[in-house]
Design brief:
This protein has 15 helices and 18 strands. By secondary structure, it is of the alpha/beta class. It folds into two domains: 151 residues, Rossmann fold (3-Layer(aba) Sandwich); 362 residues, Alpha-Beta Barrel (L-fucose Isomerase, Chain A, domain 3). The protein has a six-stranded antiparallel beta barrel with strand order 11-12-16-15-14-17, surrounded by four helices.
Length: 555
């Protein structure tokens, strides 16, 4: 008889009664984890006190790493090692004060049998809110049952009541009275007809989504399964970032110089310095201009209707950051790019819709938005933003709660006060980008917008969308918000109509939110309804969130 070797059964330590385990997921980059650790440690201390006040003990499931100077899970490999020692039935809290890579812990959360709670501090600094929303979207797509909560200092009643209920029941839902199923909105007239016609066109004629390598930054929620995407008429062209790098090296210096000259002639300012490791340099800008041309040419080669560059974890060891490229691509008015033989202008008088961090949900949304707004005679420029943070207006100018929508990459100058003349470029933070690169920074202009998000839930594509207004705040208040987040990045001050802070957080299934301007409140309402009809016509489950500007509903 052959002597088989059976694996030893692994028996992790059992969690004690009225004990909850804590894990802290982090970045893939050591420099980011080290710099952000102080904020995480402060959050964990406050969270531990809140748990103790309920008669429970919060037990860290993995140690602080003295040799690295932080206590984050820093890789998928490390995450698997941590989960081997976790009681699979124990209450588990994922505490996030920083941006995190969801794939570091998704494997363990998929198989965890006990209650799961994701928690973030209400801060825009690193930011835990964005990391938690990404993890929530990933868990939703994966079909994992979880609860989620947030707080500024973990002493407010909203947080304490939620925590108490979760400790007692193991699962708590947020109320969602602000949502309405699109099928119950009784939409008739030209908006529904246009949406259906656009859906039929997309399914019949089809479109190509160019993907420069999937899976950026562990964003499982940002990958649309092929079969779900194909049902909408959109198909992926899987492109290699190595091809983008090579094509960048093939662009001439003269062409790159012409791109920068075009931007500066329209008033854009580059804030440069001599130190490559700390400043934005002319060399970095030059490479970004080459990448811009390369991206347009590759998009044309493959007939792409939208493209996504992986950004932070993509070409960071070879090229400067791609965000100057991305925002420029999303603008109708942009430096012209000629074909390699000089015979034609590529994508003339139109953007090349780009989705930051290869977020395919945002890519599909952006393509749909472009087609709706083009058909309706509305501004076609659109972008994703991080749902970064929010606060009351400390200047007292605006009574409403004002969100900070913020993204490095993809924001088009058409969204800024002053357009290109209101745009500037600053060096990306060194802890993220060793080779630097300039951002495309500006303050979003006041106006009416449509916001939306496509996500995957229960094996289906879903879309949430609603209306909001971009407000103007005094320079001092804008700077306060920039300083509380990332001052090198473009900012949008947004007021969501009929959706509170906690309703948005409890419902939103992604770190990103898509936005596009319309020419008036009435036209924005019609654009939103048309996009809802388009999404419905493509087979998505659609929910309208909140109200119109005047507070009236959608029925």
């Amino acid at each position: 008889m052959i002597p088989y070797t059976f694996p030893e059964k692994h028996r992790p330590a059992r969690v004690g009664k009225r004990q909850a385990l804590l894990i802290a997921n982090g970045d893939l980059r050591l420099s980011a984890n080290q710099q952000c650790w102080a904020a995480q440690a402060a959050m964990e201390e406050a969270l531990g006190a809140a748990v103790a006040a309920e008669g429970w003990e919060l037990v860290r499931a993995h140690p602080y790493k003295e040799e690295q100077g932080h206590g984050f899970i820093q890789s998928q490999k490390e995450g698997m090692e941590v989960f081997r020692g976790i009681d699979p039935k124990g209450p588990l809290i994922v505490a996030e004060a920083v941006w995190q890579y969801s794939h570091h812990v998704l494997h363990g959360l998929l198989s965890h049998l006990g209650p799961i709670l994701t928690v973030a501090n209400w801060s825009g600094t690193w930011p835990g809110l964005v990391g938690m929303l990404n993890l929530n979207g990933s868990l939703t797509k994966a079909g994992v049952k979880y609860s989620t909560i947030w707080s500024e200092d973990f002493t407010d009643d909203y947080f304490k009541n939620y925590l108490r209920a979760w400790l007692a029941k193991g699962h708590v839902k947020h109320k969602a009275a602000h949502i309405l199923k699109f099928k119950e909105a009784k939409l008739r007239g030209p908006e529904r007809k246009l949406g259906v016609a656009l859906a039929n066109q997309l399914r019949q004629e089809k479109a190509i989504m160019g993907i420069f390598d999937e899976g950026c930054m562990g964003m499982f929620n940002a990958i649309i399964p092929d079969d779900l995407l194909h049902a909408t008429g959109v198909f992926k062209e899987r492109l290699s970032q190595s091809a983008l790098y090579y094509e960048t090296t093939q662009v001439s210096d003269e062409e790159a110089t012409a791109v920068r000259r075009w931007m500066e002639e329209r008033g854009m300012q580059f804030k440069t310095g001599p130190n490559e490791s700390e400043d934005l340099t002319d060399h970095q800008i030059h490479l970004q201009c080459k990448m811009y041309i390369a991206a347009v040419r590759i998009a044309d080669d493959f007939g792409c209707h939208t493209i996504g560059i992986q950004y932070q974890q993509g070409l960071k060891d070879l090229l400067p950051a791609s965000d100057l490229v991305e925002g420029t691509l999303n603008n109708v008015e942009r430096p012209p790019v000629m074909s390699r033989d000089g015979s034609r202008t590529l994508y003339e008088n139109q953007p090349v819709p780009h989705f930051n961090e290869v977020d395919e949900c945002a890519g599909l949304d952006g393509l749909m938005t472009y087609r709706v707004h083009h058909a309706m005679g509305q501004p076609v420029e659109n972008t994703l933003h991080d749902l970064r943070w929010g606060d009351v207006d400390r200047s007292g100018t605006v009574n409403d709660y004002v969100w900070v929508f913020l993204i490095s990459g993809s924001a088009p100058p058409a969204h800024f006060v002053g357009g290109w003349a209101g745009a500037s470029s600053e060096r990306q933070p060194a802890m993220y980008f060793r080779l630097g690169g300039g951002t495309l920074k500006g303050i979003s202009k006041p106006g009416e917008i449509v916001w939306s998000r496509i996500f995957v839930d229960n094996g289906r594509l879903r879309m949430d969308l609603g209306r909001a207004g971009v407000v103007e705040l005094p320079a001092e208040e804008t700077q306060r918000r920039w300083d509380a987040t990332t001052p090198q990045w473009p900012i949008m001050h947004a007021v969501t109509y009929g959706v509170t802070r906690d309703q948005m957080m409890g419902r939103h299934k992604a770190n990103h939110i898509q936005v596009a301007y319309a020419n008036s409140a009435e036209e924005a309402d019609k654009a939103m309804l048309t996009k809802a009809a388009l999404a419905d016509g493509l087979g998505m489950d659609v929910h309208i969130c909140g109200t119109r500007k005047n507070g009236k509903g959608w029925e």
